[in-house]
Amino acid sequence: MTPSIAITAEVNSMNKPNLIVIVGPTAIGKTSLSLDLASHFQTEILSADSRQFFKEMSIGTAAPTPTELSKAPHHFIHHISIEDDYSVGDFEKEALTKLEELFQTHDTVIMVGGSGLYVDAVTKGLDKFPKVDESIRVNLNQELHTKGIENLQQQLKELDPQYFSEADIQNPHRLIRALEICIGTGKPYSSFRKNEAAKRPFNNIFIGLDAERQTVYDRINQRVDIMAQEGLIEEARKLYDKRGLNALNTVGYKELFKYFDGEWSQEHAIEEIKKNTRRFAKRQFTWFRKNEQINWFNYTTPSKEIISFLESKTQS
Q1: Is 67 annotated as a binding residue?
Q2: What is the C-alpha separation between 50 and 117, in angstroms, rounded?
Q3: Binding site annotation covers 314?
Q4: What pTM value is reported for the model?
Q5: What pLDDT, in 10s, does the model give residues 57-90?
Q6: Which of 11, 44, 103, 216 is most solvent-facing, going by the fewest CB within 10 Å?
Q7: Is 273 annotated as a binding residue?
Q8: pLDDT (tens digit, 9 = 90+) per residue, 244-255?
Q9: CATH superfamily placement of domain 13-124+206-315
């Protein structure tokens, strides 16, 4: 890059508004930090947690409480139903539209969430995949209902071990999407995920919260116990009749459905929720560690230190 081009790029970057993106594993403290940052920058928060989109699922998704929601304007929290057809592509379009609106009155906006694919959709755009025969998806959905999600997980592990190691394999929609590309093209799904990032009219500043693996696991175990005390079992029971929906085939609900079916004891279901959430956190680590733009902080770092760091970034 020639000096003149470099200077132009720097000026253009300085003129752009800033999207502060808070990421990290579940139960690490992202919500608390997002509220502190929103207060300091006098701005609003977008959620990129795909499970918190659903208005029927509050306790099991650890969505912000009414008190937390009242501390700053939030977007994409409980904005759709479990019965709605909503994709990451829909979220990308709606989030970019909302950001365009917010940047009219704010120099900085916060986005927070642990769903790596949804974060990537907003910050760098979705990868482009070839079209495949729609009958493949139909067949995979039939296999899901007749053979269970474990069958799809095993297929993905064999056809694309790289994506299997980082994907949320408890998400049937994600599994089927990857498998239809693998089967339809004869190539791994991950081989198509190498496109350059889309140009965005804002700067991405990534903040990652981290901790020792055992600390994360301990926090997850504690959170699940608190969820149970706050009514998770009752929340899941109200959704039992709709358990066939993809949105409910997720950690925290599918385990309790097995308890309601009489397959597991309540105690075993709770332990399975803890185990599967720990596995999910491990995959979140794998996903976010690939992003070299993330500025990592220990979860105990005072928010004022992170704010000081961000001030140096947004004013430089």
Answers
A1: no
A2: 9
A3: no
A4: 0.84
A5: 999 999 999 999 999 999 999 999 999 989 999 9
A6: 11
A7: no
A8: 898 998 999 999
A9: P-loop containing nucleotide triphosphate hydrolases (3.40.50.300)
